[in-house]
Design brief:
globular, 30% helix, binds S-adenosylmethionine, 6 helices, alpha/beta, 29% strand, Rossmann fold, 7-stranded mixed β-sheet
Length: 227
């Protein structure tokens, strides 16, 4: 499965500016989503995590400080440099590896290489359903058999749903940010190749944001068992 992703230069610049202005745009504390993922990762014996859309690393450092090896990706070079610097200062560069990557492109890792994947509020960015399907296909590829994928997205219950400029599908431009809102049906449709372990609603931040938190376990694709 291959998809030629656009480079999304305007949103990349927007995120770079946002992060350059505020050293902890989403706050210093780890997200609730990451804290519950950490509890699950511990129970499941997870040691290596690939984080997509790490931003300034509030969740990256939660995982790393709790002994997990984290590879953190983001397309914002400002965010990635920030995480790299913070890892050096905290002397945990052995457990935090941050690199620039646009998730519209194939993940630069071999098959079956991570125990878990985590992504907080990335899949609800400027990504079409086709691109999100591609990303989940890629995370499936790089996860070890039985590996976990935990992600969160803005829900159709969010107070900003259907506000701003509609850019097609359920994608809206709101105050300079491009946001894709998800229904439960969309999440179930995207779970192909995974067992859907949990789908829950969570309110986060001062807005607040209404999120779906999705926990998936890598399974075989339905067609793979047939031949
Ligand atoms: C809503 S922020 C969440 C940041 C972080 N997960 C957190 O909760 O603090 C979304 C992040 O995804 C990144 N991002 C958006 N689209 C991306 C893409 N196509 N590839 C890689 N990163 C992307 C942005 O730069 C930003 O850091």
């Amino acid at each position: 499965m291959k998809l030629e992703g656009s480079s999304k230069p305007e949103q990349i610049s927007h995120w770079n500016e946002v992060f350059a202005k505020k050293p902890s745009f989403f706050g210093e504390e780890p997200s609730d989503c990451a804290q519950s993922a950490l509890a699950l990762f511990r129970k499941d014996g997870i040691r290596s995590v690939l984080e997509l859309g790490c931003g300034q690393g509030r969740d990256t450092f939660l995982f790393a400080r709790n002994g997990l090896a984290v590879t953190a990706l983001d397309y914002s070079e400002t965010a990635v440099s920030f995480v790299q610097e913070k890892a050096k200062t905290a002397e945990i560069t052995d457990r935090v590896h941050a690199q620039i990557h646009n998730v519209s492109k194939p993940l630069p890792f071999p098959d079956n290489s991570f125990d878990a994947c985590f992504s907080h509020m990335l899949l609800c960015m400027e990504l079409t359903i086709a691109e999100i399907g591609f990303i989940l296909h890629e995370t499936h590829r790089i996860l070890k058999p039985g590996g976990l994928m935990v992600y969160s997205v803005r829900s159709n219950f969010d107070r900003h749903y259907r506000t701003g400029n509609n850019l097609g599908e359920d994608i809206y431009e709101i105050g300079g940010f491009i946001i894709h809102f998800f229904t439960e049906e969309k999440i179930r449709m995207l779970a192909k190749g995974y067992d859907l372990l949990e789908l829950e609603r969570l309110e986060e931040g001062s807005l607040p944001r209404d999120l779906f938190v999705v926990t998936l376990r890598k399974a075989a694709y339905p067609e793979e068992g047939k031949s």
